[in-house]
Amino acid sequence: MVQGCNKHVSIPVMSRIKDKKIVLVYNVCFWLTAAVALFIFIVLQKQWALSTPLSISANMWLGNYEPSPNASKPVYCDNPEYDYVYSADFRYVNNSCLELDADEIFYKGRGMPGAFWLSTLTKNMLSKLKHAECNHTDITKCSLKKEKIGDPQTTFVKNLEKYTLNFQMGVESPYLNYDSRITPTNVYYTRPHSTERIKLAGFSRKSLLSISVKDWLELFDVDLDRTSQELNDVYSVDESIGNARIRQTGVNLVVEVQVSNVWESWSLPYNIFIVLRLKVEKNWQRSLYRPEPANPGYIHVAEDYGIRIVFEFLPSEVLVFSFEEALIALLDIFIFFRIMKIITSYAFLHWFGPESTKWRRLINHNVLQFSHLQEEVVLDKHGKKKSTKESTRDKKVTAKKVHNRRPANMSSAAKSIQSSRGSSSPVARQSSRQKKESRTRHEAGSARV
After folding, report:
1. C-alpha radius of gyration, the chain, whole number
2. N or C: at which end does the chain have fewer Cβ atoms within 10 angstroms?
3. Average pLDDT, stretch 238-245?
């Protein structure tokens, strides 16, 4: 027999407890665990699903505006109240107005790839160069040293808010064979500093929205002519004179595009929808042009201030079923139940007073010997018991060296079984029969006398 380093082997032993209070506690824990596991892994985390890749694009273009000949002059044109001096080098005074075509106002990708630009103010400066040979065709002789001539000419874009700004959203999912320009899709938006989703009316079947620049600015809660101390604190410095207005300083509008098919975190996937999360970044938006030679000895410098619209595409939240993820979710649920069972078993063995002490003793005893008792009953023709035969089959399991004494908690049935085993040998049965026959002969002799 091979001897190893182990002196005993531990095996799990299953015990049944029929105490009504314990069974009730266990049932409550079981169903509570089932509800929590299903809610967390199936409903809340949706571990059975994966987000499918999406292809998202955005496009914008500006339509022309036909001014009315009888239209009144906008308030910002030639209005001294709109004079604003940021510093000695940046003066915005004597602001006139000029009507421009759409292609002179709207640009794509200026200053940031994928962004869109709307000019609100143009600034033109004429400078005299100190090198007299600088001309229209040859700028190699133009010195960097120049002298500004007069104040810069600043011009507001007239009636910018009345131009039509077109927007088209494209969302494609090859896996679902979905295209937002073909399949009707609901589009929502959230205002800055808000999470409430508001349905954006006006989208056509082609995911196309055509609204005025004014309506776009209202979605962001932006007014180009508003003045406030907050704007002065953001855009101005200590030497600034006048009130800062977004029509002069510009602003950055951010559109975060979120595509999902789950309305709430506890909802199940349904139809795809689009949410435009609007944000406003208050900062100077200035676009510079390359200086160009003007008249001989002069150079023209132009720059624009305006609205930059930036689109940011968030990760896909369109969920689809995944067999692999579903198997992992089932494994997580199984582990969840195992943890529950470990906790409840510990509670039953330690937190129920004397009952817990008794149950701990039962599961901690070493197994010495157990017997299977089999009884065969033979009936006569009247259905009464004719004879009974008992047989025992013993097995011994040695788990630990213990004292050779009978356990104190051995039941009376086990004691009777062990006593029957002691008298079940052939010699014992023969001695018993001899004693019985001798007693019978003695009783018969006494009767004859």
Report:
1. 47
2. N
3. 94
